[in-house]
Design a protein that fits this description.
12 helices, single chain, alpha+beta, Helix Hairpins, 8-stranded mixed sheet
């Protein structure tokens, strides 16, 4: 979240930022509530001083009648302090709720807009795959090669669930190992995270675990939710901690299942693996100083690109427009891989993203650092990025590596984990 003092000092800029990001937030109410909060704190301090003085006078008073009056006065003052404290807590809660609706500030280079065409393509790698036959979509390929069972998944868990089978299982494990090996070479610490997190952790990261339109599955009769990404658990791992600046940046690569309700998701991607309720993802997460975050954001994007270049999958990178950033992101890049059977004649589809969230999440989760250059503590910056979201990567792999006979060639970089398989063919 933004600091209320920052909002006060940059009121018009915050309002303009909300407009650019298509967010309806009552910024002026933040100032009004912050003023009321300060007034109540001052009033409590005055009343507490009076209560302390009254308590002291009780011990010094010799006259019984006056002593009783002092005791009664002290009791009244304590009640008034309690009433002011209750009002203060309510105003604090109201202030936090309003501030939580205000998105992060935006990088000055981020394109302004809210439509897909407002996103800016900043890099293209490779040419869209060409075929001398009509390419099949990944669903047709996967079912013919006995790689995915959508019908059984639906019968067991409902629509948008599936069973991976045979070589698809090996492909998932190979993609995970390939991504992990890549990240280890860049100094990332591997983590397997819980698949559940508390509601306040999700809120700290910037997710809305409750309410209409949420993408989060909640566990009944508990404050736990299934995570939508390891960003949630990795970000929450150091909540309420103070880090040593000398040990920053801290770079983690997390492996987890991801669960999403896909409430209100576009209807065009209901078929197949592109938009599902459960998938496996390898996620990067970094804690760093404010001075480091812009450079690390570019580093994460370069790692994502290196992974897909290694897979030899054509892609482009977009600088995401303000209306599609999401609340915590200061800047976000999406990497979209070419999917030959997507749409009418093939389209790019999002497979990874990376966001610099500056200190937005750290303020909510109270994650700070200290070092010799600064008095006291400062909030860290947090960044996240997808190394591999397996289900969407499988879409791109199957469609780009398909052959005229319906088989699928295994990318060279994955073969060490595929038991020597170079091609996936129909079962006899």
């Amino acid at each position: 979240m933004l600091d209320p003092q920052y909002i006060r000092d940059h009121l018009e800029a915050v309002k303009a930022n909300c407009k650019n990001r298509n967010v309806a937030a009552d910024v002026d109410r933040v100032i009004a509530l912050d003023d009321e909060r300060k007034r109540l704190i001052s009033a409590m301090q005055v009343k507490q001083q009076e209560a302390n003085a009254s308590a002291k006078s009780v011990g010094q008073e010799k006259d019984p009648a006056k002593k009783q009056d002092a005791i009664a006065r002290g009791r009244q003052l304590r009640e008034e302090v309690g009433q002011l404290d209750a009002q203060h807590k309510q105003v604090e809660a109201d202030l936090k709720a309003v501030v939580s609706t205000i998105p992060n500030m935006t990088h000055p280079a981020a394109p302004i807009g809210a439509l897909p065409e407002d996103n800016k393509v900043i890099k293209v790698w490779g040419e869209p795959t060409k075929f001398d036959f009509k390419p099949k979509d990944h669903v047709t390929l996967a079912e013919a090669l006995d790689l995915v069972d959508f019908e059984a998944g639906s019968a067991v868990a409902g629509q948008k669930f599936y069973f991976l089978k045979n070589e698809a299982v090996l492909l998932e494990l190979a993609l995970i190992q390939y991504a992990m090996d890549t990240l280890l070479k860049h100094g990332y610490t591997p983590i397997i995270t819980p698949d559940l997190a508390r509601v306040d952790v999700l809120e700290g990261i910037g997710f809305m675990p409750r309410g209409e339109g949420t993408q989060i599955y909640s566990i009944a009769n508990s404050d736990l939710c299934l995570i939508a990404t390891a960003e949630i658990t990795l970000g929450g791992m150091h909540r309420d901690q103070i880090m040593d600046e000398a040990k920053l940046p801290r770079k983690y690569v997390g492996l987890s299942h991801c669960f999403r309700t896909e409430a209100g998701a576009p209807g065009r991607d209901t078929r197949g693996l592109y938009r599902v309720h459960q998938f496996t993802k390898v996620e990067m997460f970094v804690f760093c100083t404010p001075e480091q975050s812009d450079a690390i954001h570019e580093e994460i994007r370069e790692i994502e690109e290196a992974i897909f270049q290694g897979l030899k999958l054509p892609y482009h990178v977009i600088d995401t427009c303000t209306g599609d950033l999401g609340g915590p992101a200061y800047r976000k890049y999406d990497l979209e891989a070419w999917m030959p059977a997507r749409g009418k004649d093939g389209e790019y589809g999002e497979v990874t993203s990376t966001s610099n969230c500056t200190d937005f999440q750290a303020r909510r989760l109270n994650i700070r650092y200290k070092g010799p250059k600064h008095k006291g503590t400062r909030f860290v910056h947090t960044l996240n990025g997808t190394a591999v979201a397996v289900s969407r990567c499988l879409v791109a792999l199957l469609e780009n590596y398909q052959q005229a006979d319906g088989s699928v060639v295994v990318p060279d970089v994955l073969r060490p984990w595929m038991g020597g398989r170079e091609r996936i063919e129909r079962k006899s």
